[in-house]
What we know:
The complex is a heterodimer of chains A (about 270) and B (about 425).
Chain A: E1 3-7, H1 17-22, H2 24-38, H3 47-67, H4 77-104, H5 106-111, H6 118-144, H7 156-180, H8 183-198, H9 210-217, H10 220-233, H11 241-266, H12 269-272
Chain B: E1 6-18, H1 27-32, H2 34-43, E2 46-59, E3 64-68, H3 75-82, E4 90-96, E5 99-102, H4 115-125, H5 130-144, H6 159-172, E6 177-181, H7 189-204, E7 208-212, H8 216-222, E8 225-230, E9 233-239, H9 240-251, H10 258-266, E10 274-283, E11 286-287, E12 291-292, E13 297-305, E14 309-310, E15 313-319, E16 325-330, E17 341-342, E18 345-353, E19 362-371, E20 374-388, H11 421-426
Parallel strand pairs in B: 3-7, 3-8, 5-6, 6-7, 12-20
Antiparallel strand pairs in B: 1-2, 1-4, 8-9, 10-11, 10-13, 13-18, 14-17, 15-16, 15-19, 19-20
Amino acid sequence: MRVTRIEAARDRSFPDVVEAWRYRGLLLAFARRNLAVRYRQAAIGVAWIVLQPLIAVTLFTFVFRRVADLPTDGMPYSAFAAIGMTAWLYFARVVADGSNSLVANQAMLTKVWFPRILLPMSHLLECLVDYSIMLALAGLILLWHGVLPDGRLAFFPAFFLLLAATAAGVVLWASALNVRYRDVRAAIPFLLQTGLFVSMVVVAPQVLTERQQMIVALNPAAVAIDGLRWCLGGAGDLLSPASLSLAAASALATLISGAWYFARAERRFADVV
Amino acid sequence: MVDFAVRAEGLGKRYRISSAPRHTPALRDILGAPLASLRERMAARSRDFWALRDLSFTVRPGEAVAFLGHNGSGKSTTLKILSRIVTPTTGWIEIAGRLGCLLEVGTGFHPDLTGRENVFLNGAILGMGRREVKRKLDEIVAFAECEAFLEVPVKRYSSGMYTRLAFAVAAHLNPDVLVIDEVLAVGDAAFQKKCLEKMNDVSRQGRTVLFVSHNMAAVEALCGRGILLDRGRVLFDGPVREAVGAHLARLDGDAFSPDRLDERVAALPQDCEAVIRSVALRQDGRSVGTISNGRELEVLIEVEVKRPLDGFRIVFDVCDAQGGLIARSNHDEKADRAPDVIRPGHYQARFTLPAAFLGPATYGFAVALATARGWLHGQRVEAAVPVVNDCAINRMQPRRRFEGKVLINGDWVLEAERQNLPRAAVR
């Protein structure tokens, strides 16, 4: 029989990963719940998953291609926008829902115990379902343009991981901060709006100078999205190795610092929320 | 195999109560003026309050233990530490095996999910796999009597059904230690009985039950052992009958004396717009702790009003020993016009409770302050007050048990009718 020991408060500097792993079933249950709740009592239900990127891509193609004629590094604009937009929607949805997850489940925080980290993290899993459906839509658009996958597809997991790790880091920070400072709730939608442009969803970063590219690479989401376009949509070239490593380092730093802050704040969630 | 189910050693929980009006600073405050914010926080006088102090106990597997005590004695804090919602300030606690916890009915239920989905979610929160829950599903549903509603979102459930399902999940998912806080307060009598039986089953199967309830009959029926807490410390730990007896005796007010009342008044928060300065109970001009119901009771209340208050009211409550309100009186209830704005200053109120109103029992008295916006938070003093019978009611039957809550002091007339006059005249 396992003995759980609860001791006088002592700050952890990293979440208890072993315990979280033991509760992996709950992670799944939360993800399943979020998914079930999101489209319940919605008239067209799951169709929303496809509708959102479809409308965005159509609009972007019109505005940024027809009107502004932005460079896409050799891709048809609608394909360019489809891969970028679906990846961005994944990121944005995880961040938006994840950062609110602790506050939204206040009643649970003060009444039952479970590894708190599961709540924000469950959104990474939940949105994966949306993302796969959206990805299929992007695939159809690619096929329509006659773009077929090649060997570069093998790099897809790496770039997706970069995107997910960034989202996880941001969500850890934002969800824990949100418990104490509700300012986060106001800031997130605005940051995501800005992020859409900063993350190079509408224009290829290759048009920028090397120096500017390094600045962009501080935001790992931008590099991940560009990478996804490279490995899925056959965009011309990848960013420089320097930019790639900078992005990876930046994502890792966000993730680790996020986990650190979360673990420190976790203990007082029930008192503060 | 371990020889305990729950073991606590030197458990303590301290809360810091700051007396300055406290709000969580917005990020803006801290970023904008870090020094001012810091200074403000340092200046906030805070005092420590130990909700729990040096609590140690061991519960063996299969035991059913009740935690008893007044509100604020530390019962709920203990359970919250047990269920890992709050962390203790000192000491430690060990739990052998899985802990199932029902601190509030239906926590973790999502209103939009169906009954079935919620059962699985709750199982996962208790650390259980889907397969395990699936095995138990029929039993849970049968207990909760909600077969027909399994695919309906729980927000459409009646509150009774909701409660039944929540209890069923917690009780059936085989926790090694089951913690139950006052769930029996909801639900009808039949359901309460069913819950008690189920909890009995649980403890007969060698699992451990920790129980908090104000229902003493349920406590005695279920538990073998009682731990009586008072202001965060263990007062008594032993057979449940004795624990309940000790608890009721304390409710019966022998712990009350006039100086205790002063203590409570002194402990009130001082930063309110109005503060109760003193409360005294007097009969025949003398300060009393025990009341004779044959004479009038004077309640003297001194209040300091610090700023003009709209609709200011002093409220006097008479409650039964369980805390249920019997009667309430406001200082201006006989006024013939709308309440004025009261001016700052010191005031003394005198309330006279007529004789032959209270029965021979223990009552809870409370004095509280309110304004047009509602209760003045924290300004409420309570005391348990025993009453002895020396009024003209039931004088001839001193041993009769007092039933009801208060005396009516009405007038009876029993007259013989004319046709049986002769027999009545015989005596």
